[in-house]
Amino acid sequence: MGVAHMMQLQRLCDSIAIFLEDDLDPRSFFQTKNIANRYNCKQLEEKCNQFGLQRFKEIVQSDEFMELDEKFISFLMESKETKAKEEVKCKMLLAWTKHDIDERKECFLSLLMKFQLTKMTLSYRRFLVENEPLLYRSFESLRLLTISILDSTGNSSSKDINWGENKQLVVFDKTSQRMHSHDVDDKTWTPMQTIDQAIIQNTLYSAVVMETYIYVICMNGSFYRLEYAESNAKWEQMTNTELQYARAVALDGFVYGIEYQNYSNIMERYDPSNNKWSRLTNKSLILAWEALVAADGKVFCIAGRNQGQQGQPTNKVEIYDPVTSTWSMDNKSLNEARDCAFATSTEEGIYVMGGYDLNQRSTLINVEFRSSVTKTWMMLKPMKNARAGAFSSCVIDEKVYVIGGNGNPANIEAYDPETKEWKIIETIPGKNIFPRATVAISI
């Protein structure tokens, strides 16, 4: 390229540029970009720019990323097309700045202002204020972060992020007898490991994610786990639970389960360190079809149907505290009694969706939210579809995803707390899923 450029052989320069475009990958990216800049190859430079935006997470893993100039770093940080969350971009900006802090600390603030700070999680913004000298020693940086936090709602604990983390929604498909992961940003489906035949035969009923494992419980209480990040991993059968039709949640390294379709006041806890289930203190209320969720370091049993001939739904909320091993009733009840609902939680609070109103004999579209700050329940905008019983929900990047329920097994609906709107985001063609077992994993 140097010789062709010096001899003004433009057609040869163009041919070399086309070759370099075709050969562009994360390893060749940095040299190709240098060539494009040095010899003023505008089209090749644009190709490199687009490659950097689309393959950001791959190029940042190279040591050569630290040698990029301020202009290109600014371009990556500011562009809305960069395929990375704001937290990931910020984490890499900090690493780039610290690589030559004497030369780069002066431009850090101007680069920080390129971010959409309100799109970062509150926990990561708090982490920055508490742990990053580049921010807490700068009045202007603290001002920017403080304003962004005031523009957000709720409270959160301090938590770092993994720049390589990509959360995906996982369903269990009866048709292919495999798990499938869904990237909610790219709207792509990827087949994962097969489902063990014993799990299919015993009917998968509930699933949770804990650390690097997916745990599943079948109708009869048989219990299995899979290390999902290992492509060749096999399902392991763990100690079975005595719970039938169990609904489960994960909290602080344990799995908690209750009986869902049976009237019961029993809760069990699974400890992976010794592969044992243990019976906990009984709940006060004997209910069926309760929603179960972990939030604020506690386990919440929400609504459900009372035992007896009337079998009326309730709006009561019972809370288990693992520290004291005690149950208590929430001071505030749901606005509407329901059973067969589903609950999930974010950093901001608990969402309870759908369910069944026995009095009206109708499936609900109603959604309620319990703020972790005010501890009170409020009605949100309803879902697009009524759902009850055989459906589930999970959270990805603070958005709530709901799948299945009441004749909508192939329908995924999402709630955005920022816009306070629900929308149908995806369908699942050709799949017959276990609707109570949808989970979110980090890849």
What characteristics describe this protein?
single chain, about 450 residues, alpha+beta, Serine Threonine Protein Phosphatase 5, Tetratricopeptide repeat, Neuraminidase, 2 domains, four-stranded antiparallel sheet, 12 helices, about 25% helix, elongated
Polypeptide structure, described:
The radius of gyration is 26 Å and the shape is elongated. With 443 residues, the protein is an alpha+beta fold. The strands form 8 sheets. Strands 3-2-1-28 form a 4-stranded antiparallel β-sheet, with no helix packed on it. It has a 4-stranded antiparallel β-sheet with strand order 4-5-6-7. A 4-stranded antiparallel β-sheet has the order 8-9-10-11, with no helix packed on it. It has helices spanning 2-6, 10-22, 29-38, 42-54, 56-59, 70-78, 86-99, 101-112, 122-131, 133-136, 139-150, 197-202; strands at 167-173, 178-183, 188-194, 204-210, 213-218, 223-227, 236-238, 246-251, 254-259, 267-271, 276-279, 287-288, 291-295, 298-302, 305-306, 317-321, 326-329, 342-345, 349-353, 356-357, 362-363, 367-371, 377-380, 391-396, 399-404, 411-416, 421-427, 439-442. It contains 12 helices and 28 strands. The chain has 2 domains: 2-150, Serine Threonine Protein Phosphatase 5, Tetratricopeptide repeat; 168-442, Kelch-type beta propeller (Neuraminidase), CATH 2.120.10.80. Helix 6 packs parallel to helix 8.
